[in-house]
Amino acid sequence: MRIEELVIEGFKSYPVRTQITGWDPSFNAITGLNGSGKSNILDAICFVLGITNMAQMRAQNQQDLIYKRGQAGVTKASVTIVFDNSDREKSPVGLENYKQITVTRQIALPSISKYLLNGHKSTQQTVQNLFQSVQLNINNPNFLIMQGRITKVLNMRPQEILGMVEEAAGTRMFEERKDKAKKTMDKKDKRVQELSSILAEEISPKLEKFRAEKRQFLEWQKERAELERIGRTLRAWEWADARRKLETVGEDIRAKEAEKETANKQRKKLSKDCKAAEKMWEESTRNVKRNGRRAES
């Protein structure tokens, strides 16, 4: 990746859209009179690359990056870099099929900031990961060497030089990610230990209690089902027994009714015989009296 085009609008001393093209693949230099805005071009590049140290862009806050701090009617600053991405072997991961990569950073009053990657809204972390994947770390302390730092770099200790080489080679970012991942893992392990402690001291006893209550409840359900089954069986037996008794009583009633009918018939017969006997007795009595009168006369 290399810069093909730089577009500045509303950034520092560039109130109107300024387009800079014709970048050389190997070496570029910015020349001009004092106050002509040479340093602002470098600041604009660092701004897009996502630098977080405002002091390196000679600003105290983001408002200082807007033309005249937004007091001249310009309330937004935008910088766009168009990168040549024709070398597929050095392309960022996931963007190998793009001939060009466009990265835009915009800020606006009061405190609006956003990134655009190939015209689509993106996050700062995504843009930083893109640059780090091609060994470009804007927040490397030695990424931008200002005047007066050459001697300091030359007098660095071996460990500091090694760190600078690692930053330039792009390996330091993996160490930083490794350290960050370790810290995250330590936090997660600590949280897992806390959760394990809570699980062992609070949740597990309650869970065991609930399991015991569940077993008791299931046993109670089983006993209740058995009791209901026995109750249904008992009611069925009582119903069948009552029906049998009802049938027996019905038969007894019919037998008694038959006996009653027979008794009634016998009673009627006896009553008839009694009346016939009474009638015969009365006739016999009359005959006796009649014969007695005849004998007297």
From TrEMBL:
InterPro entries for this protein: P-loop_NTPase (IPR027417), RecF/RecN/SMC_N (IPR003395), Smc2_ABC (IPR027120)
Domain of life: Eukaryota
Name of one Pfam family that matches: SMC_N
GO MF term set: ATP binding; ATP hydrolysis activity
Region (Disordered): 256-297
Keyword line: Cell cycle
Chain intervals with Basic residues compositional bias: 287-297
Protein name: RecF/RecN/SMC N-terminal domain-containing protein
Organism whose genome encodes this protein: Boletus reticuloceps
